[in-house]
Amino acid sequence: MTTSTKRPQPDDSGLGALRTSIRRPDAGQLYADVLAARDGNADARGRVVGALAWAAFAAPAAVAAVYDLFAAAWFAQPLDAAPGEAGPIDGEETAIPEAFWTALEGVLVGPEAGYDAASITAAVAALGGALAPEFSGLAEAAARHWPDAVEVTERAVPGFIELAPLAALAPGTLGRTLHDLLTENGYDVEVLDRDAIRLSTLPPALRYLNTRILQMHDVWHLVAGYSTSASHEIAISAFQLAQFGHNYSAMFLAVVGAITHLQRPEVFPVIGLLVAEAWQHGRRTPPLMSVEWEAEWAADIEDIRARHGITPYESLLPANLFELAGTG
User: Is 309 exposed, middle or buried (0-12, 13-18, 19+ CB in 10 A)?
Assistant: First the structure.
């Protein structure tokens, strides 16, 4: 998410109101709030952002319920229960330490010149260090319940991808397209250095899932039909969250929602639509985590999609919307 202009600063009252909104939501109220937020109601928008942040930073087991409800409400789709009868959203939660709020305020204010992709990634990742010690256990338990993640503790942590052999593959193949994407744009092979962010210290499911997500993020861009534009980076975070319960993606989307709410509220309908579209796309797409992607390097991307039942992402919005507007 990039911007070429100085960020407006949130005022203290906005940050304080956001803090009070980060709590367990009632499903019926959240459904109504999403509808109202979509139509510009500021109070409802704050409660919606608070619900996303609650799932991200306090109750990872509630992510699926919160986002299923968010997406259904955004498109005015019916809930299984009548909105007024749904009740509080389930999910074990942990308290949020006082130190977290200071860290979150710093992330929401952000750098003077605004974030680029690398700086917002690092800022959001750092928030994990300010969470309660119990959070890691809740996130590990939640990760094990996602489709395709049941046996991750039995899988070896994958090695590093070698780019040179991919250059020799035919154009249109997954490996060659990945090679060209990374080299032509100067992207890192794994987005972040797995050792620098100490993935080896995570419990087994989180260690494997986070390592594989870093490693295959750009592969999923290609096979699932997401460009590398600012809007599609937001969208693929919702896709990854739906696919793998990726806790970093939940944190990233919560931060993007909070920044938008406090600083660029007119952009919230765009962010909400991207998240709702891509979340439902991720829920519809067969699980991708257990696919042996290294065995697919020489295959044509269209053939891979057909073989694994992957329908490319299609948004109602142009992929380069933020670039055209000069902000992100």
Answer: exposed
pLDDT in tens, 216-252: 999 999 999 999 999 999 999 999 999 988 899 999 9
Q: Are 251 and 128 in contact (CB under 8 A)?
A: yes
Sign of the C-alpha dihedral computed for residues 280, 285, 288 and 293 taken in this order: negative
Give strand ranges (E) for 34-176. none
| pTM score | 0.91
Instruction: Tell me how crowded residue 97 is: count the other CB atoms within 10 A of its CB.
Output: 14
Cβ(181)–Cβ(218) under 8 Å?
Answer: yes
pLDDT above 90 for 283: yes
Lowest mean pLDDT among 9-13, 126-130, 185-189: 9-13
Q: Please name the residue ranges forming H helices in 135-173.
A: 135-144
The total number of residues shown for the chain amounts to 328
Backbone phi, psi, residue 201, to 5° = -90, -5
Q: Per the structure block, which two tokens stand in for 193?
A: 């250095």
Identity of the amino acid at 235: A
Closest CA to 208 of 258, 159, 266, 260: 159
Q: What is the dihedral of CA 316, 318, 323, 326, to 10 degrees?
A: -60
SS3 at position 316: coil
Q: At 201, list the tokens.
A: 């210290």
